[in-house]
Amino acid sequence: METKGWFIEGRFGLFVHFGLYSGAARHEWVQTTEKITDAQYLPYLESFDPDLFDATAIAAAAKAAGMTYAVLTAKHHEGFCLWDSALTDFTARKASGRDLVAEFVSALREAGLKVGLYYSLIDWHHPDFTIDWNHPRRDDADAVLQNATREMERYREYLHGQVRELLTGYGRIDYLFFDFTYPETKQGWVGKSSEDWASAELLRLCRELQPTIIVNDRLGIPGDFVTPEQYQPTEPLVVDGNPVVWEACQTTNGSWGYDRDNDKHKSADLLIRMLCDSVSMGGNMLLNIGPNGRGQIDRRDSSVLDEIGEWMALHGRAIVGAGHAQFDPPREGVYTRRGDKLYLHLFSWPMGFVHLPGLAGTAAYARFLHDGSWLQMSEIDPDQEALVTRPAGQADGTLTLTLPIRKPDVAVPVIELSLR
Ligand code: GLC
């Protein structure tokens, strides 16, 4: 529990997907969706030029958005390494003279953010990584033959060696996101299981090299937190009756890597509601950006981060350090709780009042968080409440707050209740 403290408190992080696919600009899976060969992928390597990749600006954007940690794809499925790996030439160092992991890690530390790395277990570039149903070469006529010379044992050594590099060469790494394990057989191909990665051994290695690190759950064995992807849980997550630490990873537009022509961008309002919702269910949100081919944050992403930051500047205390509250929220929103403060995040704006079942007598004071303005609380006698219409009115034990008719001019209004 100890080492997870910062993570549970932190609640909101930035995911950064960057690689050669950012230059291809049509989703980070492009190599396999289009079954691109190594030779056809080569131009993306040859033209790799991250001249606008500015780790300090990324860290500043995360910080301004109210985030407390950030996670960079050190290597994605394409196999390209953003750090100066001694185990391959397929690196940002060789291609551009820069170690982007080193830049990222030091910028985060400078900004006071916790340091996270993403590492793909999958590797479509490595000659020993066997072809399976996710692999770009799966439909080659000689795919089975190609597998005869591929040796997962050698790939495993490479994988462990790379993780060792990342966890020894860059100081303290707080967080590691492995991606991912898929043991199912499909289209005649066997997937990859935790045996392929030697997951238990790999996890031991992580803990040995970085005793305080937290590792996700995608090694095919339990980790320190679970990772619902592009999905919002609707209840606190529980395994065998015990609450688990979780983090929902979310995109701004459905793609992780830069996807130029994709316009399915979520509004800041929606992303803020997803964040509130995650924390109300006891979870974190890791929100992704996909910097473009030159490494710059796409304007659509930076403007949504700005809007979220504007909201977080006023409401951050209802998110960071907050968590699930044991009260049933009203139909208009969700609760988060931080010590003796209960926060009601209003997703829809009610007319004149909001009724909080079961809260009568529990709160000493109520106010809006954005401007600190006092809100009237009352426990209305159900029979007096609805004036001329029966049946109507609220159940006994309901606390009613009087609200202005117009929704305050913030994405999600939050009411702070000081509990007795
Ligand atoms: C996935 C995808 C991937 C993305 C990741 C983020 O499993 O393969 O492209 O990096 O999830 O969680």
Can you summarize the main beta sheet?
7 strands, parallel
| The CATH topology of the largest domain | TIM Barrel
The pLDDT mean sits at 96
Q: What is bound: which ligands?
A: alpha-D-glucopyranose
Q: By CATH's scheme, which homologous superfamily of the largest domain applies?
A: Glycosidases
Q: How many angstroms does the end-to-end distance come to? A: 28 Å
Q: What general form does the structure show?
A: elongated
Helix content bin: 25-40%
Which oligomeric state applies? Answer: single chain
* CATH architectural label of the largest domain: Alpha-Beta Barrel
The count of helical stretches stands at 14
Adjacency order of strands in the biggest sheet: 7-4-3-2-1-11-10
Low-confidence stretches: none
The CATH class of the largest domain turns out to be Alpha Beta
Task: Kindly estimate the percentage of residues that lie in beta strands according to DSSP.
Answer: 15-25%
Rg, Å, rounded:
24 Å
Please state the structural category.
alpha/beta
Count the E strands.
18
Number of structural domains: 2
